[in-house]
């Protein structure tokens, strides 16, 4: 909670008082719904002069505040330092990616960062619009497969341009021998949640608990030491904002938001998480080809050291994808009990095939039926 001398940033009145005290002209502050971790507001500027040049007339921006607990559950402590990492990543990563994205004229970009109040853990960001890809998927005018391809190509750039990028909030390059080992411990801990709790899902849906424990020990444990590149950390359709292009109504601008779980890790987890959620959308919302287009585009632009490294990476993608499918639908509703059982069954079958080294069974898994040719080839 705010002190007596500071506005409370967990409500609209408090943020408005904060903005007024900072001479930031505005006409409206609206608390947005849908998120669980933070207090997120859309702020509309006024025609009056403002101390912030990005607040032009009739423009909206987003303010995002991290309290030391979950917005949805104030009794659950959640380190507010997570916002420092989002600010850090959005300060350095877009510039690293820019030269690559300009060459291919990508319509995907990381949300723009405008300002950050570290003391209050309040981040001001570009307003990427109100429609996230998870909801926009059913829009009949959108080319969902093309969106998937654009996202896959963009994600390769994130991963390949940040191999030497530290997440240290204090050290500069060359100052610290542990420079590239610095990580967002909050993001690492959160990311292991599905692995650590997979056994509970397997118990509930009648699968081998020892298999779940082995997956956690063998693959979940690696999340603490994976150190290939900067990962978004929560890359899924719910964190992709879709806005129609003003000049071409058949084109869209895609804004990637919610970077607070960014961490150094393996690129396979970003790909695996998006693949899992794309699989669910294709399965339950209309089979629009998001999954295959995303994976094929990613792998078309991605280079690996050798074939062995590529195959190992593909195995990590499938493991993360399968863990996600076997766990999260048991907590977030996608289907009825029978439909959820089928999802857990698919995840368990894929995990069993990976750990058993059974490539034939893995390629025949229903989970991978629409995965595209390039990933399937790597699993051969």
TrEMBL record:
Record domain Aminoglycoside phosphotransferase: where: 108-305
Pfam family, one: APH
InterPro entries from the UniProt entry: Aminoglycoside_PTrfase, Kinase-like_dom_sf
This protein's name: Aminoglycoside phosphotransferase domain-containing protein
């Amino acid at each position: 909670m705010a002190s007596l001398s500071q506005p409370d940033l967990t409500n609209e009145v408090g943020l408005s008082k904060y903005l007024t005290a900072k001479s930031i002209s505005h006409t409206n502050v609206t608390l947005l719904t849908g998120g669980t971790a933070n207090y997120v507001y859309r702020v509309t500027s006024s025609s009056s002069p403002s101390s912030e040049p990005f607040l032009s007339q009739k423009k909206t921006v987003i303010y995002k505040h991290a309290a030391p607990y979950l917005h949805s559950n104030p009794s659950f402590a959640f380190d507010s330092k997570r916002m420092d990492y989002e600010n850090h990543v959005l300060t350095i990563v877009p510039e690293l990616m820019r030269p690559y994205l300009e060459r291919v004229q990508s319509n995907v970009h990381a949300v723009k960062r405008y300002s950050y109040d570290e003391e209050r853990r309040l981040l001001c960001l570009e307003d990427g619009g109100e429609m996230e890809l998870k909801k926009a998927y059913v829009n009949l005018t959108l080319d969902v497969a093309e969106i998937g391809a654009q996202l896959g190509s963009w994600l390769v750039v994130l991963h390949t341009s940040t191999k030497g990028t530290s997440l240290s909030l204090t050290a500069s390059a060359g100052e610290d021998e542990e420079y590239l080992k610095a990580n967002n411990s909050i993001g690492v801990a959160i990311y292991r949640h599905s692995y650590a709790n997979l056994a509970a899902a397997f118990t509930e849906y009648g699968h081998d608990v020892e298999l779940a424990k082995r997956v956690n020990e063998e693959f979940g444990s690696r999340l603490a030491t994976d150190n290939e590149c900067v990962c978004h950390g929560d890359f899924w359709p719910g964190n992709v904002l879709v806005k129609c292009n003003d000049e071409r109504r058949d084109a869209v601008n895609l804004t990637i938001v919610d970077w607070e779980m960014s961490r150094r890790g393996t690129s396979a987890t970003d790909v695996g998480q998006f693949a899992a959620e794309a699989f669910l959308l294709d399965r339950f919302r209309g089979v629009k080809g998001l999954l295959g287009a995303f994976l094929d585009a990613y792998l078309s632009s991605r280079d690996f050291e050798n074939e062995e490294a590529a195959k190992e990476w593909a195995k990590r993608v499938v493991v993360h994808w399968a863990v996600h499918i076997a766990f999260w639908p048991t907590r977030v509703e996608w289907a009825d009990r029978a439909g959820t059982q089928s999802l857990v069954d698919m995840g368990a079958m894929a995990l069993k095939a990976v750990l058993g080294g059974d490539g034939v069974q893995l390629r025949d898994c229903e989970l991978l039926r629409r995965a595209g040719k390039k990933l399937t080839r790597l699993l051969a």
